[in-house]
Amino acid sequence: MTTLTRLIARVRDEATERLHERLYGILSPRQQAILAQLLEVPEGARSSDLERWRKGPSVPSGRNMEKALERASEILSVGLGAMELPPGVPHRRMVDLARYGMTATATTLRRHGPSRQLATLLATVIYLEGKSVDDCLDLLDLLMTTELIGKAETATDKERARQHPKLARHSATLAVAVETLLEVTEYGEELRLEQVWEAIDAIVPRRELEEAVAAVTGMVPPPDADADGQMRALLAERIATVSGFLKTLTTVIEFGANAEAQRVLAAMKTLPRLLDGRKKKVTEVDIDGALVSGSWKRLVFRAGSHGSTVDKNAYTMCVLTQFHRHLKRRDVYAEASARWRDPRGQLLDGADWAAAKGPALTDLQLPEHPETLLAEHALVLHLALRDVAARLGTDGVDVTVDEEGRLHVARLKAMPEPPSLVDLRKRVAGMLPRVDLPELLLEVMGRVPGFEAAFTSVAGGVSKLADFHISVAACLTASALNIGYAPVIKAGTAALERARLSHVAQNYLSAETFSLANAPLIEEQAKIGFARQLGGGLVAAIDGMRFVVPVPSIYTRPNRKFFGGKRGLTWLNMINDQGAGLGAKVVTGTVRDSLHMIDVLFRRDGGQRPDIIVTDMGSYGDVVFGLVHLLGMQYRPALADLPDQKGWRIQDADYGPLARFARGKIDLAKVKRHWGDILRVVVSIYTGRIRADDVMRMLQRDSNPHPAGGRDRRLWPDFQDAAHPHLRGGGAVSA
């Protein structure tokens, strides 16, 4: 055994050294000098350039956006992302090198030999190219959502609330005057204008009437204005927040766009010329007037002494808000980014699609031609609608369909708890032992060796520290209870010294090692007899928990209902019917769970993939329902707002009272036309080629997704989530 261990260790070391030498060999002398310089602390600075590059923005502001673009420009100018890596370099090893480079200090990296040092820096800078662009666009999204649009909407609402009493009072004055006018002219008698005014003046003095007209005219928007006019006017006043970074945004980051957003992207590229200060007067010739619509027309086009002129501040905000909307929908995208790329270009295509299609369709039991499958579903839906319609109002359940086709189900009364259940709950609570969390962790480590073994270093090595499991248990306790190291430090015990705990937490505890450690726990839970009595592990529920983030971060979002005046994030967690947490994902703010639910399903830490998925209303959507079904699982959402749901039918049959409910008609011909694209989307998710949240954004816009480009050959990793990032494989290289 010891001989084999030494042999394996020697071969691994040789392979690692060979990898370092191959990566070192593709660097030119100039690139070697640039990478080596990253570890040096410039004169007058307090940290190295590598440390500065690794630290992204945290507070949304126009100035921080400019700094983020400057950082991205520096990183992209090195040009390492476009390099052709040597053939045969494992993608996973590049990911490991980037992980290590993102966490190791400059002092530690300087201690390594030239080949390992520069190979690590190469992988790290390639990763940072994508991350820097991600940070810029995440910051832009946060800046637009919270600092600009959000604050403008809040200010508009406050102004409307402030004006409401005054508007109501003046409107009442005008109403009295109009009522008097109608009364005196009601009988068709011919009255002189003076007589009409005498009647009105007797009720409302003319001076008050003039004040009321002026006040209402000033507060009420014109008849052709939309509801966002006041908010957009406030946006135009915030031009100073965005003017600085708009001059470099489209030059630092290379954007692409589909046909729908090409015009907006072209207008964005002209904004630097309008904002450079040298062009004092802007006319309609200088802008794309087709993009100006609604209340923007009144704000952008101003009548002057020499004809119509353009308010460039309002036009800039008009274009920027449309650009932001298209960017969120991925109609505008940045290929240098990981999270803001074009999802159509990431779908399986060509040889990859041909190789993956057969096995995946066999696993999912999906036909290449949909006629038989659609006929079966049409029959099942027809029989289900007939059966439910026949049983409406029976079986003790009050179900009705109103005139608008909305389905109403009477509230079910809660069943009283039997005394035996109350007694059982007390007995179980009395049998549960009171145990300290560290003792529980140490016991689990003793029974599940794979749990401790999962905590490897950022460089991929296994720890040789004495009593390593004690240090891990102490760090997990401090993190889980959010109490810091002070309560778990014990002077004189090497495993519990502050320096040891700090070293273990920084080098061995990460989101990736937590996921690896969860896998053996899931397997061990499935072996417990009581857990098997609860279920077979094939039913799982997905729900989100909201948390306030106390530190500034561009990955958080505001929501007064959940976070008060602060910002937070959502921990989307999946638990099976055996009581085991199979996986989780951290998402920004309180975004709808439906965008990320399928990602949680296919990025489990371990255990069987569930056959039945239960969620609340936040994860439901018609597209989600269809995707989950095509991916081979049953979807059972708890629909809280049932009257808001619309039923669908295929056949033109009489379904009695459900005929009004099933008012949607499914176009099977359209499904058949796009069946090939539907399969390509489903298989791309199933094989892990594309994230489901990207697909959801794409399908919200398109019913016929087509790739915009070839295979993505970028070889840098991506964060799986925003708040607790860990590296994963990405691009075209499969896991």
Structure description:
The protein is an alpha+beta fold. Helix content is 52%, strand content 9%. The chain contains 30 helices and 16 strands. Strands 7, 8, 9, 10, 11 and 12 form a 6-stranded mixed sheet that branches. Strands 1-4 form a two-stranded antiparallel sheet. A hairpin with a 7-residue loop joins β15 and β16. The chain is globular, with a radius of gyration of 32 Å. 31% of the residues are buried.
Topology of helices and strands:
Layout: H1 2-25, H2 29-37, H3 49-54, H4 62-78, H5 91-103, H6 106-111, H7 114-184, H8 193-203, H9 206-219, H10 229-236, H11 239-246, H12 249-252, E1 255-257, H13 262-275, H14 295-300, E2 301-304, E3 307-310, H15 312-328, E4 332-334, H16 350-364, H17 371-390, E5 399-401, E6 407-409, H18 419-431, H19 437-447, H20 449-453, H21 468-481, H22 498-508, H23 511-527, H24 529-534, E7 539-548, E8 557-558, H25 560-563, E9 567-576, E10 581-588, H26 597-602, E11 612-615, H27 622-630, E12 634-637, E13 648-649, E14 664-665, H28 668-673, H29 675-686, H30 692-699, E15 718-719, E16 727-728
Parallel strand pairs: 7-11, 11-12, 13-14
Antiparallel strand pairs: 1-4, 2-3, 5-6, 7-9, 8-9, 9-10, 15-16
Helix pairs in contact: 1-7, 4-7, 4-11, 5-7, 7-8, 7-9, 7-10, 10-15, 13-15, 16-29, 19-21, 21-22
